[in-house]
Design goal:
The protein is mainly α. It has a domain of about 100 residues: Serine Threonine Protein Phosphatase 5, Tetratricopeptide repeat, CATH 1.25.40. The protein contains 21 helices and no strands.
């Protein structure tokens, strides 16, 4: 929807000179987005502080697939209209569509704070939380909406997935029962598949997820989860198909990108694998697993020094990452730095032994002292 020209600007742009805005609206309605963009820019040359029109330009740029340019325009508009929820929501959506989820979250959180029961920003914020591996925060966002929108399947579906990812299976099951009571749906099949996958019943999980794909092939995350079930069952080719299908729906899906990167690397295609890791890191820039994959790919490509620098930085942030210590040891051995390699190999062993000790302590806790 195109905003009306503010009254003051309309008065200034009198005598027929308001035509660019009318023409821009007509162009948008007829699908001529390029002309609308040109006309909005023509107007903004004379009135650069017309924030509403700049926001309209951002919307037109989004329609034209120019998300980065739209972000620039929305940010300028937001400086002039800091409390305008529409501009902030559009800016968040542009960041979301570019896979820049941390920035999308920043603006969605601001919106959610002002409008905690508004459905669209809350659902998108929860979606971003799940993509960035923050299920507990997604639950916190959506739980209050469960009472406000008791019949909204999107709320129930995303909340149920967040609860499962947060290992709150009993609460998730209650929501699943609510969906199942309404009959079969893609959402119910997805949540059933996720539940079976958590129980490691791969055949049952694959069956439910195949049904979810059949019912709604464009539902977010469904192809990724189906691909994970197929991969766990050793069906790598079928899994790859599903991960690629997910990326047709959401090219920035973190799990699909990292899974495909691993499979491509196994097929001897490091350049293609690296492109998918770059997409994944755009969503979760500090994810240890993705950073480790990037360094491993660079090592495969013979970029030994670059891999060393990346692994060294990774271990500063995640000092107990045993695989990264082992990989850095291999890098040092390639660089003929034997002492450094021995040090990292020893550190990898120490971290693994410490992790194993903690597992054993959980399995066999010491007996409680008698009073």
């Amino acid at each position: 929807m195109v905003l009306l020209l503010p009254l003051g600007l309309a008065a200034l742009w009198a005598g027929g000179s308001a035509d660019p805005l009318r023409e821009a609206e007509t162009a948008l309605q007829s699908g001529d987005v390029a002309s609308a963009i040109r006309l909005y820019r023509e107007f903004l040359k004379s009135y650069p502080n017309a924030a509403e029109i700049r926001s309209n330009l951002g919307a037109a740029l989004v329609q034209n697939g120019q998300f980065a340019a739209a972000i620039t325009e929305y940010n300028i508009a937001l400086q002039q209209l800091p409390n305008n929820p529409r501009v902030r929501m559009n800016l968040a959506l542009a960041y979301y569509k570019l896979g820049r989820l941390p920035e999308a979250v920043e603006h969605l959180q601001a919106l959610h704070k002002l409008q905690p029961l508004e459905l669209k920003p809350a659902l998108l914020l929860a979606d971003c939380m799940l993509e960035t591996n923050q299920p507990a925060q997604a639950v916190e966002v959506l739980a209050p909406l469960r009472e406000e929108y008791p019949d909204d399947h999107a709320v129930v579906y995303v909340l149920g997935m967040a609860l499962m990812k947060d290992n709150r299976t009993r609460e998730a099951q209650l929501l699943l029962d609510r969906i199942l009571s309404d009959g079969e749906s893609a959402e119910s099949a997805f949540l059933l598949g996720q539940s079976e996958l958590l129980r490691n019943d791969l055949a049952a999980a694959a069956g439910h997820l195949a049904r979810a794909v059949e019912l709604d092939p464009k539902m977010p995350w469904v192809h990724t989860l189906y691909g994970q079930a197929l991969k766990a069952a050793g069906k790598l080719e079928e899994a790859t198909v599903q991960f690629n299908e997910e990326l047709k729906v959401n090219p920035y899906d973190f799990t699909a990108n990292t899974e495909i990167a691993l499979l491509l690397l196994q097929d001897g295609k490091p350049d293609d694998a690296l492109a998918h890791i770059a997409m994944a890191l755009q969503v979760r820039p500090n994810d240890a697993g993705a950073l480790y994959q990037r360094a491993s790919i660079h090592l495969t490509q013979g970029l030994t020094e670059q891999a060393r620098q990346e692994l060294d930085q990774l271990l500063r942030d995640y000092p107990n990452f045993s695989e990264a210590h082992a990989a850095l040891a291999r890098v040092y051995y390639k660089l003929k730095r034997t002492a450094d390699g021995d040090r990292e190999a020893a550190e990898a062993r120490r971290v693994r032994e410490e992790a194993q000790k903690q597992i054993e302590q959980k399995r066999n806790p010491p007996p409680a002292e008698k009073p």
